[in-house]
Amino acid sequence: MTDDQHTDPDPDNQIAEIVDTIHDMRGPGEATVGALIEQMGVASFTPILLFVSLVIVTPLSGVPGLSSVCGLLIAMVSAQLLLGRDRLWLPDFILRRQMPRRKLNTALSQVEKPLSWVQEVTTRRLSFLTRPPFSYLLYSICLLCGAAMPFLELVPMSSSLLASVVALLSISLISRDGLFALLGLTALATTAALLLAVSQLLF
């Protein structure tokens, strides 16, 4: 049986570890971007992409300026993945960014259950879509989505839609499940069509 035909849950699926880490993030401690990334693991590039994109999907994205900061973070992490770096570097102005602890705890509790479900349903399907050269395309899409967020912050729901694309692609790359890559590309096409329609109405 080939890798792409395998349908049993992958015991090395990192999603379960991410769920545990997100659970541990809840509490009264410091809530800077740097502190949260340190808990996630500064060498865990793709899990950080997933975590940040999920934060933007929650109501926490309503905090002024947070979507822009998270978008820049997604773009920088994706760029360093494309460059093959093994250690993440981020500027201090992003690392020092504070998140409201109460709202953050609420957001983290909201993503735990969906992520647990994702961990159960992901498996190694169409995994060639998550390996080079296709993985470079996925990272590039994440980079573009993140880079677009600061420019679209005033457009309602735009950051959350782009973050959903990044989340689906990150899940695919972490779990080696190409089905989620296809879902992410479908979400990207839908988001692009919606943003084009909105831009035509506004301009």
From TrEMBL:
Species for this entry: Aliiroseovarius zhejiangensis
Name assigned to this protein: Exopolysaccharide biosynthesis protein ExoD
Keywords, in A-Z order: Membrane, Transmembrane, Transmembrane helix
Transmembrane parts of this sequence: 35-57, 63-83, 158-175, 182-202
Position of the signal peptide: none
Pfam families named among the record's database cross-references: ExoD
